[in-house]
Write a structure and sequence with these properties.
- Helix content is about 35%, strand content about 30%.
- It is of the alpha+beta class and about 220 residues long.
- The N and C termini lie far apart (about 65 Å).
């Protein structure tokens, strides 16, 4: 999670859905001086696109300078995929080279008096990230062929998602196995230490009583 401000943030994690082939569009409020982060689990080698804009509170008037954002998109390994400073709109597109949770963080600079900024954010990954209207225009393909292509890509994405989830499940099983093994070793070591301490105490008491000729 990225913290790009000096004041204490209130960070909200909004999960955009577990399946990365689903498009998500949300609107949220952000107070000045605070950060709000949005995460999405993305498979490796998947396309991801997003766009955001600040909603003008006064239609027909210029957007106030207080309604500017700093936006950063990073992977779970901390790699930076997008950064924009003091903007009211923007977009990003990248291919996820690393599988895992990706984070889009929005920070509003501190302002007196405090202001509330409304942001529209659309984040798409996998099949949903493909612009089908441009595909149809460029390829000049029939409507039925386009629908079949969309269905094929959707099925392929679901198939890949199943393998991805299976890999994540195997990783969790392996982690649980290692954790259980470590806990077993720790428990055995704790018992050995307890028995050793108890034995030393018995030996000390026996020696003490023999010296006092109580035994």
């Amino acid at each position: 999670m990225i913290r790009i401000h000096k004041v204490l943030p209130i960070i909200m994690l909004l999960n955009l859905g577990f399946l990365s082939n689903i498009a998500q569009s949300i609107r949220f409020d952000l107070q000045s001086g605070h950060t709000k982060c949005i995460s999405e689990d993305i498979r490796g080698n998947s396309m991801s696109v997003g766009k955001y804009n600040v909603v003008n509170p006064n239609e027909g008037h210029p957007l106030p300078d207080s309604h500017k954002l700093t936006v950063r998109v990073t992977s779970s390994y901390g790699n930076n995929y997008h950064y924009a400073d003091k903007v009211d709109y923007g977009q990003f597109a990248f291919t996820a080279h690393e599988a895992g949770d990706y984070m889009a963080c929005f920070w509003a600079p501190d302002h007196k008096p405090p202001t509330t900024i409304t942001v529209d954010f659309d984040w798409r990954s996998g099949v949903a990230a493909k612009d089908w209207s441009n595909v149809a225009k460029k390829g000049q393909i029939e409507v039925m062929e386009l629908e079949l292509q969309k269905l094929f890509d959707t099925v392929s994405s679901i198939h890949e998602e199943m393998f991805y989830l299976r890999e994540r499940e195997e990783e969790m099983h392996e982690l649980n196995r290692k954790t259980a093994s470590a806990m077993g070793k720790f428990t055995f070591l704790s018992l050995v230490i307890c028995f050793a301490v108890a034995g030393s105490q018995l030996w000390y008491l026996k020696t003490f009583f023999e010296r006092k000729k109580l035994l």
